[in-house]
Amino acid sequence: YLSHPAPGRQCAAASLLTNLTVHRYGMEGITSVPGWSERMLDRRYAVDREAQTLRHALIMAVKRSPVIEEFADREIINKLTKYINEGAHYTEQTPQAVLEL
Q: In order along the chain (101 residues), what is the average pLDDT of each group of 10 residues?
């Protein structure tokens, strides 16, 4: 549901998953989905500011989970940290060439 285009569903899913991160079974469920970290960290799926904010809160909760090191390796934890440090509404700037005619 985090990748569903409907903002209401994204927000509900992010809120539910955020609440589950404090439980071992919640983290096990979240991290057992193949590609969970790539999907969670992909900013293209957060379609509005509220969804971006809730996704950021979810990633912070996953990172702060007392059992995160049991379910994620150091590389994933570093990616979560980078996402958190960039902020909820970060957009990657792509270089653009200016052409003078």
A: 68 91 94 92 86 94 95 96 95 73 68
pTM of the model: 0.84
Q: Which of 96, 94, 86 is nearest to 43 (CA)?
A: 86
Q: Dmax over Cα atoms in the chain, in whole Å?
A: 61
Assigned token pair, 26: 């919640």
